[in-house]
Amino acid sequence: MQKTIVAAAFAIAVATTASFAAGEAKVKITSSAFQEGGDIPSKFSRDGGNANPPLRIEGTPANAKSLVLIVDDPDVPVGLFTHWVVWNIDPKTNEIPEKDLPKGAVEGSNDYPNLGYGGPQPPSGTHRYYFKIFALDQTLDLRSGAKRQELDKAMRGHVVAQGQLMGRVTHGR
């Protein structure tokens, strides 16, 4: 029964993310700390410095009113683990420095559960971490500390573009 519930929750999360981007424009998100599909340095892990990696954002559409950043791990046994949610990022933002948050941006609760960034800490094996950027046609009226489900619901129907960057972390590395 629990496996069915976990599988259903994961399927809903995947479908929600996919529905945000159906036919949408692309935003490019990169990091100077790691390349697409590469290893995320340990200083950005929970066991390291637990600092968010520097991120670069390019190609935000002119009609975007805000950006949302979601960092998650789909490889945990429970189906999906959210490490960071940030919304109402100014759409003119093209860089999120290490250990920093853009002025005016709002952070939600991660699944540790803590406010703000919670770095990778895979329980075993190698996990993938997706840094997803969404351009929205509005700002969001969510309180600081809101959970991922609240953010997903508020974003629905408002995504005009998106992009993602994936990095890996191996347990015990």
What this model shows, in words?
By secondary structure, the chain is α+β, with helices and mostly antiparallel strands. It is 16% helix and 31% strand. The protein contains 2 helices and 9 strands. A 6-stranded mixed β-sheet has the order 1-9-8-4-5-7, with helices on one face. The longest helix is centred in the N-terminal third of the chain and has 20 residues, at 2-21. It is globular, with a radius of gyration of 15 Å.
Give the structure's gist in a few sentences.
With 173 residues, the chain is an alpha+beta fold. It is built from two helices and nine strands; from the N terminus they run H-E-E-E-E-E-E-E-E-H-E. Helix content is 16%, strand content 31%.
Keywords:
six-stranded mixed sheet, disordered N terminus, 31% strand, alpha+beta, 173 residues, 2 helices, three-stranded antiparallel sheet
Instruction: Write the element-wise H/E pattern from the N-terminal end onward.
Output: HEEEEEEEEHE
Number of strand elements: 9
Proportion of helical residues: 10-25%
Low-confidence stretches: 1-22
Q: Which percent range describes the beta-strand content?
A: 25-35%
C-alpha-based Rg, rounded: 15 Å
Distance between the termini: 34 Å
> Biggest sheet: strands, sense, closure?
6 strands, mixed
Order of strands in the sheet with most strands: 1-9-8-4-5-7
Q: What's the number of helices? A: 2
Mean pLDDT figure: 89
